[in-house]
Amino acid sequence: MKVQEIIRKIEEIAPKDLACYPEDNNGLLIGSYSADVSKVLLALDLTSDVLDEAIKLNCQLIVTHHPFIFKGLKNIRDDMEQGRLIIKGIKNNINVYCAHTNLDVVDLGVTEALRKKLEFPKGTVLHPTEKEGLSKLVVYVPKENAHDLLLVISKAGAGHIGRYSHCSFMTEGEGTFKPLEGSNPYIGKVGSIEKVQEIKLETIVPNKILSSVIKMMIKAHPYEEVAYDIIPLNNTGKVFGLGSVIELEEPIKVKELAEKVKEKLHCQGVKIFSRDLDKKISKVAICGGSGGSLIQEAKFAGCQCLITGDIDYHKGQMAVDLGLTVIDAGHYYTEVPVLEHLRELVNDKLEDVEVYVTKVNTCPYIFL
Ligand SMILES: [Zn+2]
Questions:
Q1: 22 pLDDT exceeds 90?
Q2: How far is the CA of 227 from the centre of ligand 1 (A)?
Q3: Which residue windows are transmembrane per the record (predicted)?
Q4: Residue 321 lies in a domain
Q5: Is 335 annotated as a binding residue?
């Protein structure tokens, strides 16, 4: 597969335009969209060891979560680490793609991988960053073609509501038209008014995919000229955002919860910001990576605990003052579950491409 085709598949899971900071640097950072790829390596970070692993495995594409190039480069020199890796990567035909905050905010991204790893029930978005806009699509189609058309537009992404697909409403009625000079009608004759039993098929479509759904619909529709309406809706679809608020099935003491987090995430240690290790927790917020900015939101959402990484002294003090327990399991350990999770998601989508998760631990610190 070409780099571009693989990127398209990854962006079906984590659309690039969902990145929650304009200055974020998602996308293809090094290489060529047209390069051939048979092996992909997934990593949180591009380090020297990760690059060596990719070369050893003969991977042509490294997909990272953190952008290897973030700010503008003033030089690419082999006596400096970043330049050395860029040069080495290019010399070894390695392409580098990054899915950063877009992978943080999508429903199947970093938070979902962390939730699954911790074996928590499903939750709701803690800090929404985007809500999907929706339109109603109404199309008129001969009765015998209605079902097939529904299948086509559903496959293109229309008619999805929560965990249901192929959602539509069909009403039967009489359609009229008169084919004019130069037309090539599917039904009827040029110059005479035609009456046809038609179905008015109504369904819902996310605005982002509206044009591709319409394109597929027109292609599959039997008529030369397709009559359809697009009606903007005030309903919102999927909510994207950072972190998740989760009601636990059973209340659990802070100490036991922290031990569970440490065990499930395989980290050497966790920091607990709390004055009471016996406090019972029934509602938690989770956020992979740096979730310090979500302390107040987690408290206002009614959570007694936030599980995240990168909590510094002052953020920790603020949490304790608010009465919110924070379990800091580290940036790396709260995000690394996304690699295996992403491998499973993309594996089915990538034909003849092998996907590996790096064996390199790119956490920059160890506990003594
Ligand atoms: Zn991160």
A1: no
A2: 48
A3: none
A4: yes
A5: yes
